[in-house]
## 1
Amino acid sequence: MTKSETIRICSILDIPDDEPLAVELKNGNKLAVYRIDDEYFVTSNVCTHGNALLSEGWQEGDVIECPFHGGAFFIKTGEPAEYPCVKAIKSYAVTIEDDSIFISLSEAENAEPDSF
Ligand code: FES
């Protein structure tokens, strides 16, 4: 992936310890950016069970707990980790360059709009 095919979404320095960073794309899609040890992950910020922002929930290791209803997702894959969440959140491929986090432009543009 060349740099022109990606968009910068934030600096790794923007991400708090043990807490996701909320980022909104120009197309309105809401993302959550996570640090786990020294790795970085990006998912949709919107819970698939309801209209909750995962960045307002609680990060426990590689799991993000939704602030509503006790549901949770695995951050590295987007797969549901706890009921009542049964549908995965979108997970984005990440590249890092010069302390910045990039995701694929086509992936960002072609992602289904979030419902929140
Ligand atoms: S809205 Fe997230 S678990 Fe219900």
Note: The chain has a mean pLDDT of 91.
## 2
Amino acid sequence: MKIIFSEKCLEYSWPGHIERPERIRKALDLLRQYEFLEPEPASQQDLLSVHSREYVDLIKNAKAGSYLDGDTPAPENIYEYALLSAGAALLAAQEKGFSLMRPPGHHAGRNGRALGVATLGFCYFNNIAIAVRKLGKSTLILDIDGHHGNGTQEIFQGDQKVTFISLHRYPTYPGTGLSSQGNCLNFPLSYSAGDSLYLKTLEQALSQVEIANVKVVGISAGFDAHQGDLASLGLTHEGYREIGRKVGALGEASFRRARRRLHRRIRGQRPS
Ligand SMILES: [Zn+2]
């Protein structure tokens, strides 16, 4: 497993804001044993594959030190930091790695604020959407962040190549994702869900996907559903481990099915 990371993502902060470099630093300390790769910034073309030009320009020209909305600040050079985070997602997709970067992205929709939500939720460009669009393959996006990925849903709603699954706390920000819509499968949960209900719900969610048709699984890996965190669903360390095992098993199940299909085909070709 390769970790995509740049020290640059620790450079910016906003006084008193909850989205801060410390969250990355803590994870960094635990992941030192892995191979690290340095990302390149995403291109304009990559951004424009999921966002409107007007919105990209809005972030590019944001006045340093201002607020874009009630909860999303514009620290100096935020455009460059957001480009690098999107570039990290692209590299993670290419390398089948894990992007340990900020700013996050899943609340950012095509024109910024998504599905009628009032704020960007500290997101600027939708990193996972940019990476999935570039791969252009049949993809399952699993969003395990404690908040609903309203931006990701908005971008991929109705997209035949993408299935979006989100397990999230409700009610809380952004207040969307109460029910499933077409290719976007939503599983709202109470703050008191805990490991057991969460994992049962995850299993139920994954059972609704024809995994044999999925070529790529992309994870929006926010960890704020951990007990006591911002969007706590009462998950423990062991709960997260089990999420990892279930996601890992998807690849094995898909491999087994592909192998069975191949064997059937070989048997069918044998002269009788
Ligand atoms: Zn979150």
Note: The chain has a mean pLDDT of 96.
